[in-house]
Amino acid sequence: MIDQTAADLTSYKRDLLLAVYRANQATETPVGADVKRELEALGQTNTQGGQFYPRLNELVERTLITKNDHPDDARGFTCDLTEEGREVLTQLFVRNAISLDIDVAELDLPAEPPRPGRRLCGRPRG
């Protein structure tokens, strides 16, 4: 299920997941502007409301992100990855590592093993 969810996301939504993660790493209570800034740092140029908010809300509806009123400013919101969102982001990193033939530490692997015939790192397991 997680692998399929990761495969179904557009590049913008994948970057948005990563931007939410990075904003939460950088700031205790990140607001939408922090997420936009991280998204722009990832190379996305279309961060205005017409693309940003609908995609963010789609990820909320898919339960990959939580979105809550900001505790100090009723005009703003905070957001974070859900557990499922973290699993999808991890799966995306693992898929990228596999495609680039990069070693992935055992502790960083998702609980669900990849499909048979796929390597988890640059060398055959065994």
TrEMBL record:
Q: What is this protein called?
A: Helix-turn-helix transcriptional regulator
Q: Which InterPro entries match?
A: WH-like_DNA-bd_sf, WH_DNA-bd_sf
- Which superkingdom? Archaea
